[in-house]
Amino acid sequence: MRFDNEIKLNKLTVALLIIYWLISASFYPALPDLVPTHWNIQGQVDNYSHKAVATLIMPGLPLFIYILLTVLPILDPQRKNYQKFAPTYNKIRAAIVLVMMLITLLPLLSALGYNLDISLSVRLIICLLFIFIGNYMGKIRHNYFTGIRVPWTLASEEVWHKTHRLGGKLMVAGGLIALLSLLAPPTSGFIITMAGLLLPLVLTIIYSYFLYKKLV
Questions:
Q1: pLDDT in tens, 56-102
Q2: Largest CA-CA distance found in the chain, in angstroms, rounded
Q3: What pTM did the predictor assign?
Q4: What is the enclosing helix (H) or strand (E) of 67?
Q5: What are the residues facing 45 on neighbouring strands?
Q6: CB 37 within 8 A of CB 107
Q7: Are the beta carbons of 209 and 150 closer than 8 angstroms?
Q8: Torsion angle defined by CA atoms of residues 143, 145, 150 and 156, in that order, rounded to the nearest 10 degrees
Q9: What's the CA gap between 196 and 78, in Å, rounded?
Q10: Cα–Cα distance between 64 and 114 in angstroms, integer?
Q11: Among residues 177, 143, 179, 164, which one has the least CA distance to residue 211?
Q12: Taking the mean position of all CA atoms in its chain, how far away is CA 164?
């Protein structure tokens, strides 16, 4: 049953990638030659790309990420461990791909005339992804490509396990704090968002180092 669910999730992800690319390509005739593709922390456009890039090339990024995240476990020296958390890995992969589809779709919608706060929308999507991954961090098993990979977590499975359990909790807390920053003005909100996303990672790495020193 678990294996069947994994296959269904992978098929759904691939189907969404195909549908997403077709939708993006269908926008091409209606778009201006130049499409805004980057916004600063104030929510102002600071970079443009040709509509061919925005509708045909940028939508290929989620596909590239899907392929990369599919290949990495095969290349990992600890690839056997992926079987121990395959459902978790597949959910994380699907979530990351979905987020990339949403982020690359937003500029197209904006260029079509939809009144969107792109900077705020991207921060919201990233915060939700951070919280989602945090909920699954404790289930990630020892490997070289996924999770918090520093010398001391790679050197000890016990350090790896305890680090990811704490890291997951801190990521959820940080993600929730980052969500609150969406209510703040753009500049201070951006700073709070970055703090909510980066501090949990820094604290988790520091914790893993001292835990390793304690155990060895």
A1: 888 889 999 999 999 999 999 999 999 999 999 999 999 999 999 99
A2: 63
A3: 0.91
A4: helix 60-75
A5: 39
A6: yes
A7: yes
A8: 0
A9: 31
A10: 27
A11: 164
A12: 17
